[in-house]
Amino acid sequence: MVHSDPAPPLLDHYGTLFSCHSTQCDEPQSRVTMEECQLPLIDLSALTSDDEMVRRACAVAICKASSEWGFFQVVNHGISPQLVEKMRREQVKLFQAPFETKARSGVLNNSYRWGSPRATCPNQFSWSEAFHVPLTKVSDEACYGEFTSLREVITCFAAAMSELSRLLARILTENLGHGKQAPIDDICDETTCFLRLNHYPACPISPEITGLVPHTDSDFLTILCQDQVGGLQLMKDSKWVTVKPNKDALIVNIGDLFQAWSNDVYKSVEHKVVTNTTMERYSIAYFLCPYYDSSIESFVKPSIYRRFTFREYRDQVQEDLRKTGYKVGLPRFLLKGSEENTRLYTPSITAKS
Fold it and tell me: Domain 28-293 classified CATH 2.40.10.340?
């Protein structure tokens, strides 16, 4: 590989593994035409309406989509198109840097990752590269090296995404009966929230390789800003459906913690990113997380899940991934019949989330 090549060595690594192990993999994924879905589209400008009924209808739509889909889109969300465009330009510039620069220069808190190091067969591969950036580091000048112009833009972008995530989280929490002073404000902090800058190169070798393997998110909620290439798929009514990109919208999805908090009222839905043979894709995800020692307990009684901390949940996820390659997730924390439910649960190969 040429030293100045920006591409991570995905082809070198996965090409060999694919040719050696493709016949040994379970549940191969094929590139078939997927049903395209239009996620619920919610205009957040209604939340500032003078009409209380209009404001209430918008909140109801958010909660309904979180329950029925686990995903929805928002427009008029307060993040300017100009800021999104600046962030995208800086993101592209960053990923076009030489691979050695991204991997070894310590940029963005040394958060660069590529592929799936533990992959042993095609349905475990993630054909992608990413920077997994803690919010505590986005304003740190020492993290940027030669990418000085990125700092101001990503700091503004992260602050805007944080404000939006908390607004949505408060609405979802209030719907569960916790009034205007939602506890989400007390337990979520930038010390555990993060941004992930994603790049999915074109994948020429096999339709069985995903850009990001099927997974659920281990947070309260995620806000995704994506380009127009498409590739996001989610599980709806026991089948994969493709999300049609909307240039004006951000995508919001519920994470595992909100599903537990809501006693399964809100759904943390499995999703993945499929590869494209000719086009690369960029996206940015913001993850709203609590303090590691925050207690997660259902607001609705009787509770389905036992009380646990965010740290305990993450540790269990990582332990399952190390031992089996699978994220079991919430079924590990069921109060009654948890062992039986865990045995009945059929997990997917999952990304670290």
Answer: no
